[in-house]
Design goal:
It holds the Pfam family ATP-synt. GO terms for molecular function: proton-transporting ATP synthase activity, rotational mechanism. It is a peripheral membrane protein. This is F-ATPase gamma subunit. 50% of the residues lie in helices and 16% in strands. It is of the alpha/beta class. It has a single domain, classed as 3-Layer(aba) Sandwich (Pyruvate Kinase, Chain: A, domain 1). The strands form two sheets. A five-stranded mixed β-sheet has the order 5-4-3-6-7, with helices on both faces. α5 links the parallel β4 and β5. α3 packs parallel to α5. The radius of gyration is 34 Å and the shape is elongated. The N and C termini lie far apart (95 Å). The relative contact order is 0.11. The model has no long low-confidence stretch (mean pLDDT 75).
Length: 246
């Protein structure tokens, strides 16, 4: 046995075991963590750093407020032109052909920004469309305007992306930027039957609506009876209007 009653001692093997535990510190006292009050110097340094961050934040708020006011003013001036061009197709009741369709999806976002939901909402809408109609995985092609939406869709539908644009948000947008994008879209080799332009429609600082509007090709316009008064116009005029509306 390990304990001898006659000698009132443990056997040598047990003593060796206790000595080994002492060597590894099994019976060493536990060091408790102590906390000390911050000195006045530490508090002074902390207050100074917080005030510096506050100044930087206030400066960023002033800059962002000025940029927001300018962007909102430009948007209000440009929005009637887009709504007027779209009203022509709504009044004429132009619709894409029925049946199996080759779909072109134009997804618009920005290149930078910390508003993740604004960028991801466009990608979520496209993903929902793909899930509801599996045929779109084969027939649809995607054009991305902005790095944010391209980064999301590249992981999901890399085979469907045919064009992508970036560096359009560093400066205030102008008409020439839209012309370059529209010409690239109209000049791509993909012959589509139905086009969808998907973007976030601005409402307020904290509110937006993910919107999709149809994109038509010249053949869709010629099939409608309500636009017979324009049949006497030259093909160049109608083509220019098609490019302008896009």
């Amino acid at each position: 046995s390990t304990f001898c009653p006659a000698s009132k001692r443990f056997s040598p093997c047990v003593l060796d075991m206790f000595s080994a535990l002492q060597r590894v510190g099994a019976f060493a006292p536990v060091c408790l963590q102590t906390r000390n009050m911050a000195t006045l110097k530490d508090i002074r340094v902390r207050l100074k750093s917080v005030k510096n961050i506050q100044k930087i934040t206030q400066s960023m708020k002033m800059v962002s407020a000025a940029k927001y006011a300018r962007a909102e003013r430009d948007l209000k001036q440009a929005r009637p032109y887009g709504e007027g061009a779209q009203a022509f197709y709504e009044v004429a009741d132009i619709k894409p052909p029925e049946g199996k369709q080759k779909t072109l999806i134009i997804a618009i976002s920005s290149d930078r920004g910390l508003c993740g939901a604004i960028h991801s909402s466009v990608a979520k809408r496209i993903r929902t469309m793909m899930q509801e109609d599996p045929q779109l995985l084969e027939d649809a092609r995607i054009i991305c305007v902005g790095d944010k939406v391209r980064g999301i869709l590249q992981r999901l539908y890399s085979k469907n992306i045919i064009l992508s644009f970036s560096d359009y948000g560093k400066k205030p947008p102008i008409f020439d930027d839209a012309v370059q994008v529209a010409n690239a879209i109209l000049g791509c080799d993909y012959e589509f039957d139905k086009g969808i332009l998907m973007f976030n429609r601005f409402k307020s600082v904290v509110s937006y609506a993910t919107t999709d509007i149809p994109v038509f090709k010249p053949g869709d316009r010629d099939r409608q009876r309500k636009v017979h008064t324009l049949r006497q116009s030259s093909a160049d005029v109608l083509q220019c209007y098609q490019e302008y509306s896009l």
